[in-house]
Specification:
By secondary structure, the protein is an alpha/beta fold. It has one domain: P-loop containing nucleotide triphosphate hydrolases (Rossmann fold, 3-Layer(aba) Sandwich). It is about 35% helix and about 15% strand. Strand 4 and strand 5 form a beta hairpin.
Length: about 220
Amino acid sequence: MHLLVARACVNRISKSDSFPIMGGMLEEYLVFTGRPNAGKSSIIREIVGLDVATGKRPGTTRNISKHPLNSGLVLVDMPGFGRITGVSKRLENMRKNQIIRFLESNAQNIALAIHVLDISTFLETSWRLEKKGIISLDVEMIQFLAQILREFPLVAANKIDKADKKEIEANLKEFMHRISNGHISAVADKVFSVSAKTGEGLSALKSAIHEKLIVKGYRTPFEVR
């Protein structure tokens, strides 16, 4: 199911998907999204220091998980968005609707969104989906986030250790071309090539997240409670 089709299926916002108050204080969210097996939970663990579940099997994160970081700031780890081997289509669609409901109903309370993708297989995966008439889910989610948040999310282009340099560069160039509608320079400072496995690029990503959150009033955004 396309993201836009999934949105059309959500006729009303469920109160259970909105979490605006924490201990009498307005919550704001640091949201991480990504397809199954993109390495989202590994990125969260390396960047923030949270001991979140990770695994080689896609779909380790199965529900929307909330982790308080400091006063009023909550990290939200979204379940993988897209096809998961061994999971029914019905459950996939339920998860998609759950993610969309949360993002739309809490958009005004999202301080920052970070999308994680496996950049090493972007072209291969995109071409395979396009043969079926399906747009890249990573591209669609990033553009969706930009639309509802009115600012471009940060992107962790993960798993640069999984392919040679030329292949990664080709994947990255095409990916940035698609998310920016051809205006690559407009997103150059939003996309970070990283490897959760080797640690490459994580320092720059962490600094970017930290700086954006400081601007919004969080002096120690990664202080886990």
